[in-house]
Structures are given as structure tokens and as C-alpha cells.
Protein 1
Amino acid sequence: MSTRAERREITERAILDAARGLLVEGGQEALTVRGLARKLNLVPSALYRYVASREELLTILFSHIYTDMADFVQAAHDAVPSDDLRGRWRAFATALREWALEHPYEWTLINGTPLRDYHVPPTETLTQGIRLHLLLARLGEDAEAAGVHPRIRPEGSPSAMPGLKQFLASQGIENISEESVLTGVAGWHLLMGALYEELFGLFGADLEDKDVYYDAMVSATEKLIFG
Amino acid sequence: MSTRAERREITERAILDAARGLLVEGGQEALTVRGLARKLNLVPSALYRYVASREELLTILFSHIYTDMADFVQAAHDAVPSDDLRGRWRAFATALREWALEHPYEWTLINGTPLRDYHVPPTETLTQGIRLHLLLARLGEDAEAAGVHPRIRPEGSPSAMPGLKQFLASQGIENISEESVLTGVAGWHLLMGALYEELFGLFGADLEDKDVYYDAMVSATEKLIFG
DNA sequence: TGTACATCAGTGAACGCGCGTTCACTGATGTAC
DNA sequence: TGTACATCAGTGAACGCGCGTTCACTGATGTAC
């Protein structure tokens, strides 16, 4: 590997790190081409040697952040023996919050208000963004196999949501009932709702012991899922 | 009432309407002083006769939006006979989504990523923002009085969260257990999580029949709360 | 191995844009006597 | 009721700012023969 290629890789790395630095220090509004250049002691136009536009920069950043989050949560989940279903769920839920609190701006970029005139492209970014959902779906498969029976069902007929089943099948997840999917999703929404409150909410700031509070929310999801 | 005062009131109203129009058409980034002036066929500086700064403008807007949302949801809730506890909850949950879908940008302004360098002041805005929480707390009181017993409890001792109880008491809500509060809040988070997904999320766009989906989520909250 | 040429990273100036806010002003509406 | 003055809504120009992106350029690094 020649010097030139090495240096290019180093710079690319540095750009990414600097971008995350901007995000951590100033939130998503700080994510500007010029700010990034300032941070790197470069002239703004220099960045266009590495990135075609601000949009492309954001795409790269999104992809990395999704990957980081999914890696972290998945590692916590995978550390639990696979027959301990409640433990897997609890590890998942706990890690989700841990990551969010350690990376509030990254979390916000991914989960908050979509950026105007920017849409996450449905490529690798999406495959990363979806990893945790698939993890949950697999947990759901295991739960059903172990005899956990979900109690949430859609109003209409069986298979009121064919698109959902089809999508899961396309991802290799076939042994799960619609009811289990909905139950898992309900748990996911409960956790996410709690995190939105903690990070954005009116109450997030004061009032209560947040660890105990979240713990109660995790218990709620357990009741919901495992009865 | 003299002509001058009348016209001032009309203009104030027009400013608010125009601001909401900007929001609806272009999202929160469109909420600029100059854009507002353009919409009103005024020169930007003219607005400073009515509003001290962009910040004040936002505060007024927040207050109105919170009020609108709370009015709408509360009306739906209050239309149900007060002894029909499940019906009250269901009406609340349904109206919450209805309002969100009819006013996605308003909903986003209130519930999405907090605006940089703007914090909602803890005045009337907060009293409006909190109305729905208090409504739920009262529903919780009624539920307990009717013998619905919540099954979620915080890990530690009784009253692991004294600040919460104290706050509710300051709002005139005293006959509710911590467990009931947490149960209600869990339901709230589940609904909000589902709405965040629908409005911001990766899946929001396609995949499924969203009405059926949300209905299943409401059922989940009912299971959680009423057993 | 040495030379001629091509590639590439980074510079510096400039573009057009929209933003929030200020200021001195004009002309119409309201008020006091 | 008529006049003199004060209040007020809206104007128009200007301020300083930061943004994303382009372009012609320099000088160092790499490549072909």
C-alpha cells in the first residue's frame, strides 16, 4: 500500500471522527461542511476531494452510527445464553438505553426529527438500521419455539398485515406468528417511547430516578411479552 | 374597541396563522422571521412591532399547538362516559394518533428533536404541554377507585420515586399509587413510540396497514393496563 | 536509474443565498385641549 | 369642532453572519518508459 493510499485512508477516518465530534459538541445543526473543515484545519473546498456533497457526508455518518448502535446492543444481547429469553430481552432493552445515553446526539440524529431535504438512502444504511429489528424477530422466533404465546392480535382476520410477514420472510425469518411480531414491536415501541421522553421530553430533565423508572418500563415490556 | 386595537388583534392572529402555515408547508426549518414576513406581504422588520424576537414567536406557537392538541384529545376523551374506563383510554389513544396524523409538522415541532438554542419556557406552555399527562393521571385515579389493579412496580422499595408523587400531589392528584402511574406511563410510552415510528421511522412509509397496526398497539396497552 | 508526465491533496478567492436584527424614516390613526 | 401633538404600523436599506459549492491554481507524490 503506497503512501498516498495510506494517507487517504487516514484522512477519511479523520473526517468521520471530526464529523462525530461536531455532532457531539453541537448537535446536528453543527454538522456543516465548513465546520468540519474548520475542525480539520482544512479549507472547506478541500473536503470535496473526499466527499461529493454534504448529503453524501451525512449518509456515511448515518451508516456508521447505525452500525455502532447495532453492534453495541447486539453484543450485549449475544452475551446472554440463548435459552434465557427474558435475559436476552432485558439485555437488549438495557443496552439500548445505555447506548442512547452515552451517545445522545448520535441517537438523536438517527431517531429524531428527519433532517429536512435529507433522506437516508435505502442501501447499506437501511440494512444497518434494521439489524435490531431482525434481532428482535429472531428472539421472537425462539420465544415461540419455547412455547411463549403472545396475546396481542390484530383486530381483523388472521394475517391482517401480509406485507409484514412477507418482508420478514425476505429476511429469512419465517417461524414467527403475526401475533408474536406485534407483541415484540409493542415492547420495542414502549422502550423507544421511554427513551424519547428521557432524551427529548418535558420530564426528561428532572422529577425522578431515571434508572428505576426505566427499569419499571422494562418490567412492563416483560409482562407484556412473557406474561 | 378602537380601530387601531382591532387591527392589531387581527394582525396578531394573522401572524400566528401564517406561522402555522409555514410549518405545515415546509416543516420547522421554514419557521423563519423573513419567511413569515414574506407570507404576510410585510417587510421583515415590521414583525418586530408584534414580536420581540424569533424566540418569542416560537414560544407563542408552541403554546398554541400544545393547547390545540390537548383540546382535541381531551374532547375525545371527555365524550366517553366516565365509568367506561377502557373506552376512555381507547378514545384517548385514538385521538392522539388522529391529531398527530392531521398535524404532522405541529406534532413534530412539539415531540421531535428539541430546537437548537431554543428551550420551551416553563410557563403556560408547560401547563398546556402537561394537560394530557394529568388527564391520564385522573384516569388512573378512577381506574384504581374502580378496582383495576396495576401490576407494574418499581424494583426497589415502595415509593422509589418520591419526586413523582410529590409533583402529582401539587397538581391535585393524590389518590393514585406509584404502580398505577407507572402503568399508565408505560401505556403512554407505547403509544408515543408507535407514533414516532409512524411519523419518523424507517417503516413508517410502507409495509403495512397502519390503522390495523396502531389498533394492535392500543390493544397491547389495554392488556397492559386492564389485564 | 533518471527523466517526463499524470495524478492528486490542498489552497484561496469568489459565487449567490437566506438568515435575524437595527435604524432612521413616513404617513396614517388616535388623543388632549 | 378644530387644531397641535403623540402614538403607532409599516417601509427600505443596511449590518454581519454562516452556509454549500465552483474554480483555477500550486506543489508534492506516484508512474511509465
Protein 2
Amino acid sequence: MGEKMKFSSSYEPGDFETDIYAAWEAAGKFLPKSGVKDASEMAVEGSENSHKRFSIVMPPPNANGNLHIGHGLTVALEDSLTRYYRLRGEKSWYIPGADHAGFETWVVYERTLEKEGHTRFEFSQSELYARVWDFVEQQRGNMELQLRALGASCSWEDLTFTLDENVVRRVYSTFEKMWKDGMIYRGEKLVNFCTKHQTAFADIEVEHKDEPGFLWDIGYELTEPTGDLTEIVVSTTRPETLFGDTAVAVNPEDARYKEVIGKTVKLPLTKREIPVVADEHADPEYGTGAVKITPAHDTDDFEVGLRHDLPRVTVIGFDGKMLPEAGEEYAGLTTEECRKKVLKDLEEQGLLRGEKKITHSVSHCYKCDTVIEPLLKEQWFIDTEKLAAVAIEHLEKDEIKFHPENKKKVLINYLKGLKDWNISRQIPWGIAIPMFRKMDDSTASPAVDPSNAPEWIFDTRTNLDEIEISGVKYRRDEDTFDTWFSSSHWPIVCTDWEEGIPNEFYPLNVMETGADILFAWVARMIMMGLYVTGEVPFKEVYLHGLVLDEHGKKMSKSKGNVINPMDLVSKYGSDAFRLGILRGRSAGMNQAFSENSVISGQKLCNKLWNISRFIQGIVDEEVEEKGFSYANVDVVLENEGSGGVTGADESRYGEGSAIHSSESDSINPEQYQYTTNNMGEDWICRELDRCREMVSQCMAEYRFAEAVEILYSTIWDKYADWFVESQKIYKNTSLLKASLETILTMLHPFAPFVTEAIWQNLSWTDGMIIDSKWPSRLEYDEISAENFERLRTVVSEIRATNVGLANVSRGEKYGLLYGEDTLVDDNTLLVKFLSRVPSVASTNGAPRGLRLALPGHELYLDVPSEVVLKYRDSLSEKILAVGKELDALNARMMNPAYVERAPAQLVKETRDAISEKEDLISRLKGQLEAI
RNA sequence: GGUUCCUUAGCUCAGUUGGCUAGAGCGCACGAUUCACAUUCGUGAGGUCACAAGUUCGAAUCUUGUAGGAACCACCA
């Protein structure tokens, strides 16, 4: 990339981005070692900086999918941080990942299987695993190319795939530890079962939807009439499950049913008798106040069953059809068919007592929308009690800082109510659970007695379906792990953490991910990190909200409002996308996406490009003209510019130019040395320095949008509009070079491509901006800088007044006259150029025209009296406006409590403002009277 | 039902221990124009900071309440 190209008149991202990324990657700029300094630098800086590092992991996108806009935001955030800390000289490691996306990928694969006319049941688990592996390999790569297009400066050779050998090894070792610690148990529990996908889900993966339904009342006849009662009427939305009823529950406080507690009722449509039990679960206010208890098909009933030691009768199979236990007539029907038949039969027997329309929430599979059936199944569970308690303890000790802060409370609240974690999934595409069950016919030789062998044993040989230990045969559990179980190890596996080996990158500096997976992922990483390593896995958490569509609605394929980040990248450029998506976004908030912000980012890139083109032009010109005419002109201008400035420290100017370099700060020895020759130059150094400080502060506090905002206004409103403009009069190439390098470096974390493209195009820069150094303090003269600030006010007022006059002046432009005004007197050429007046001259003691409303300045626009006359209305308006401001200030001072209690500085400022306004009003009034 | 958050310009959003005339981008209006950039330059209009009460010398900011909206968790026989 050494060859310098010519700047074209606009920035075309497409011409540079791919090449630049390839060059970075080829030069190894993304490796953590590229941030390591050589020994000599370390010696200069001392030990303070030398050990610093920055580590962050990427939430792994689906290996065979495409990136969506949320990934775009993730990369913009994470890569800005990484590049920022890399510029600051820290060993920066951004670790990329790819997710096997167990369920998602499985669904896609099963669909292709179906298209080929196959079903999963034709293959063994290991065959299926191998097939999906090939399928994913074929599909892989898109997402990685897209990450490159977004500019992610991640260390590709460290990419971790969620099924990599080291991940599996770590997951097995944790599982084994938990198994030994007694935290893993096999339990028959109700699981959220999708009968279409044939797998169980974690509670968190189930989607609840409010749907219209019916509440039916059914009469359950008492075996023996009690008091006035001959039957108990129960309310249910699922009559088909009545075959699995093993009790009827009433509230112990419910007077209506006190008598029947402990009695039995006849279960309709069958000959079974079931007890009436007293349980808080029955709400006297709801329905009839009596509820049928079906422990095998309802999570609440399951709990009731435990409390009353009720049997569990399963009547629905994993295929979603009724089992023989439901009775001959009903077996084989779908739940829906069965419900109809049950209702019909109940009605015929006169047991249907009522039907009421209600809205209730129903669980659905988040992928196929099938109604989730709670079914009894033996699964592996993790006892989360200790894990959660330890996590809460560390969170309460503030070991992890959250952005936004309130999410910590939300997380603790979640952990306090955390239930045991079902980690079994009936999906072949995942990490096999390393548990083997003793086979019924388990003796390999007659000499062995298998009865003493354990039912389940842990073994990592999951590539085998059967193993033999001490002559006993075991068969592998076919299930795989919940993907969140392996993902919870992400910071551990990505940083290659190992027991007993110091790891400078663990814990991570920050975990950046979506606020929507705070529970599913962040909570589990914290628990697992603490369990495995004893340390929290990251020191800070930054959670981003959802990127909503332009109307603030959630993006979804079904709504058709999905925005593809790659479309935006190709249309506006990668930098524009990054700047745009960061804009107006704060931690944890769901925010609408605005294409306008991306366009504004595109404009900034183009602006910066043109600023650079202009500066390069001046540099080239200087090289050509050095020695003759240019220098002569320059001397004249410089003399004017550096003349006595009101209130300025004269001695500073008397000594000539001040030479500044950043050597004193020692952070950035490569920064270009510069001198400041006039107040505009001091001013831009001050503004750039303020920008540098504010951006650093914002990055430390994860306020990305604000950092971008500050850079935008510094580059455009200050650097381009004032400094670069004023450099058309005073050319200071050393400062132009130094300041341009400064803004390029500061913008680089957010807009890596354009800044690198410019860096490569500039004639005097070396190397790559990606590993240049974050700017150190810029030197400037404060008084001189402040004088330029006053000059800006003057220029703005001249411009505004001229525009105001345009209505009455018929396009004529007026010159500027100055009386006792050293600031203007010393900078006539600059004032003339910036304010676009035809002339700037002294009043020579004979003021005329329209006096400008500027306190502390005696300036007039040389306007003929008839125009001033026409201008008097706007003059009166101005007096009124200033009067209002003055009234407000006076009211404040009239309050004795204010004067007494407010900080002295504030009171002084108010006083000064009042005298300034009073001054202004009297002058404006004088002007008005003079007309 | 529980937890948390939001309500500021036409739109999308900033506004960090309470403090000067509440900001930005886009949009809008008026004006400019060879020579870095029309992806430009200059100037401007537009806000009872959802509402009410309180604390305070001072509230967009803190407290309480009201109204509207959102997300997540739990439950809905």
C-alpha cells in the first residue's frame, strides 16, 4: 500500500475497503501482539502502561448464516473499542467466533432432509451429526466475509467455533466436575416439548402468546354425596387431559368445598376414582374454584402432585397424540381431535356444565409456532442453587460493572428466582452429553455381575454409541447439550484459560452483547466463569438494545421490515454504516434505525476526505514553491496575524512562533511537530485537545454516540469551517499535518476505512493508521485561543446582520468599519475573508452605518441611512429580545437567597451578563434613536 | 401480578454529581456559488422537556403521584 494515489474529488468507499482490510489482515495487525511495544518504548513509558491489555470476545454469529443489523451494531461497538485501545498501545485481542447454532441450524437442515425425501429417523445420531457438519461446512464463510466488510479487526486465527475440540473438552470437564459435585441430576420433569421438532426447550426459549380460548366447566360426580353436594364442577381449558387427572384440588379456605376435602370423585369418561385435595393452587375466585390436577401435563399440577404425592399419568405421547392410557376410544387422536370428542362425550353424558370465552397465554415453539406440550421426560438438570448464589454474591460486591447500570439489578432479581436448568436437547446437532447408561442386557461375560454397576457413568468417548467398562456394557445418552451450556464457557474457551496457568486475557475487559440475552447468556457465563475459574469472566458488561425499524417497530421477517446491513455497507460504505448505527444509541435502549444517520456518516467521510485533499494540496504547493514568492506573501500575512491582540499575553507573541511537540507527554513520539503562529492555530489546538479528552472520557464510559457526536462537530464545525478556512490565509503546513493526523487517528476507531485510505494517500505519513498512536496532549496558548473564539463571534454576527439586511439591501454588500477595536484591527484580512464583506476599514473617528450588537466591540456595517431606516423594525425586535433575557437575569439577582446560596462564581457570571446586556441595550437604543 | 425502562423540535435521539439563552442529525425556510468538498457554504424558524404536586436560591435532571408506551420474568385450571 506504499504507493500514494491521487485524491479524487469524492470519497468512494468501494474503491478502498476490500484492499485495506486485506492489507491489515495480511500485515497481522489484528493479532494481540501487534499492540505490544518493543523494549525501548516500554522503558520510556515505565511499567504503568506496559502490562495493559484489552480483551473482548465476539458473541458468535451463526456459522452458516448471514449477519443481521444487530450484528452490525455489535461489530461497530466492539471494533470501535478494540481499535481505540489498540491505538492507545494496549495489547488488544478481539476474538471472533462462530456458533453451531444447534437448534436454528438443525431446523434448516431437517428441512433440506425433508426436501430430499428423508427423515431424521433413518439415520443414527452420529450419522446425522456428520451430515450436518458437512452441511454447515458448505454453507460457511458468508458471515466471516460480512464481518470483514464491517471492518471487524478481530484476530481470525483465534476464531473459535462452538464445536471446536477445545470447547468440547472444556464443557466435558465442567460437566464432570458438576457431576462429581452432585450438581447434575437426572430427573423426570415436565419439559417444554415441541412435538414437531421432537425436542425439549428451556423455559427461556418458549414464546408465550395471548390467545382466545374457552374455559369449560365439567362435573365430577362425588363418589358419595356430601352435604348438599353431589358433584364438584371443575374449570379447565384442556378437557382432553382429564384422563391424566389424579386429583381435584380446592382451596383449603374455600367454604364451599370444606366438606369434600379428602373425599373422592369419579373421573368422567373413565371408571377411575380420584381424591379431592386441599391446595393453595386452587384460586376460589377463578372459575368454579375447583381445579383438576394433571401432574403429567401441567407444570403447576406437577408441583401440586409433588405436594400431595399424587401419581403421574401420562396420556399424551411425544408425537402429540393420545396414548392408550386415555382409553381405547381416544388413543391415537391428536390432542385437538381428542378435545372435541371429549367435549362431545361429556355433553352427551350431561357432564358439561358451562363454556366461557377467555383469553389465556399459550406456549409456542419460537421456531415453528407449534403449541408446546408440557410432557414428562427424563432429562439432565443442573442444580442452579449454588451457582446462582455465588453469582449474586459477586454481583452484589460490584465485581462487574454494567452498562446500563440498572441491568445488574434486573439480573440479580432473575438469579434469585432461577429454577433448575434443563440442559438436555433432543437435537443431533450439538455437543453429545458424555453420559452412558447401563444396558439391560449389559453383561459382556457371564462372570460379571452388573447389578453393582452404576446406572449412569460419565465418559468422554462420545464418538462411540456403546462402551464397555469392567465387563459391563453402557449405551450413550442420545441427547446433546443445550447450546447455552457450552456458550456459557465462551470467555473461558476463547481466551484459552487453563487451570493453574496465568492468563493475562482472562477475565475479559468487557462483554458486549444484546440486552435480550442477559438471562440466557450473560447470567450463565457469570455463573460458569465463577464455577470453573473462581473469577468473574469479565469486568464490565455493555448491553445494547434492539435495532428497531425506522418506525420503532421490531424487525422481523414476517413484517418484511428487516434491514440488511450489507446493503447499507455497499450503498454508503462501511464507515458510514458504523457511524450511523452508533449515532443516537445508548446502552440497553431499543432504538429505531435511521438511514439518515448513515447518510450523515457518509458525508462526514467525504468531508474528511476533502479536508485531506485540500491539505495535501497545500503541502504539495509548499514543496513546489519553497524559496520564493510563496514565502514573501506568507511573511506579510503572518505579521498581521500575530500582531497585538486585546488582552493577550504580548510577550508570547514578541518571542515569535511557539514550537510545540508532544515529546513532553512521551506517549506519542511519532506525532508530527508543529508551531502555532496565530490565534486560529492556537484555537484549533485547544479544540482538538478538548475533543481528544472528551472522546477518551466517552470511551471509558461506553458512550459511543456521544464520542461520535463530538468528533463529528469537531471535524466539521470547527476544523473544516473555521480552522481550514482560516488556513486559506495563513498556511502553516506543520500544523496542518499534525492536526490532520490527530483527527484521523481520533476518528479511526469509528471509521477505520476512510481514515486508513487517507493515511495511505497522504504524502508524508508512514505505516498504517491502524497502529498509529492515540494523540497526546496538544500545546496551545490559551489567551490566543480565546481571542479566536471572540473573533468567531464577531464574524458570525457580521454574517447574521448581513443576512438580516439582505431583505432591504437588494443584494448589495456593505463593508465593515471598526472604531476602537484591536481584535478586528489586528485581523482585518482574516475578518474580511471569513465574514465575506467587501472591505474592512477604520472609521477614523467618524462612525457611520449600523452598529453591530456585540458587547466589547465597536463595529459598524457601512450601510446607507435609508437602509438603516428600513432595518429599524428588526432592531426593535432585537432590543425586546435582549430585554427579556435581561429581565430573567435581573429577576435572579433580585432573589437574595440566590445571591446568598448559589456559588460565588455563578453569581459573578450573572452580574457580568447583566452589565453586558445593559450595555448592549443602551447601544441598540442609541442606534434606534439615531435613525 | 413482578422487575426494569421510556415520554425533550416535524422525525430519530443526546442532555454524566441540579446551574448561563435545553443540543445534534435529518427535514423545513431564506440566501450563496469556478479554483478541498453541492456528499458544499452562510443565516434562520421550530421546544409550556407527557401532566400534577413536592424538595431547592435554582428542576428536563431529585422525590411522590397521574396518564400513555415498551421490554423482560412469572401466571392465567
